[in-house]
Specification:
The protein is mainly alpha-helical. It contains one helix and no strands.
Length: 82
């Protein structure tokens, strides 16, 4: 009878350990998900900054191209008058 009680106690303790292990695994998974979410949000912000910089560069290229074309036109006018 004493052996059976010990076996039952060990079984109960084992089940508690298994349950605790599952909870710990779930917490670790939640922490990993949270970490991945932070990485995703950081990457998203960085990509948004890159997109803004790209658009600004695109605008600057158009402006510089327009200014270069204006100088080319002025140069051509100057050359024809000389």
């Amino acid at each position: 009878m004493l052996v059976l009680e010990k076996i039952l106690d060990l079984q109960i303790h084992y089940n508690q350990l298994e349950s605790s292990k599952k909870e710990l695994d779930k917490l670790e998974d939640d922490q990993e998900i949270s970490k991945l979410e932070r990485i995703y949000l950081s990457d998203k912000r960085n990509l948004e900054r890159v997109l803004i910089a790209y658009k600004e560069n695109e605008k600057n290229i158009r402006d510089n191209t327009r200014e270069l074309e204006n100088y080319r036109v002025k140069l051509n006018k100057t050359e024809t008058t000389i």
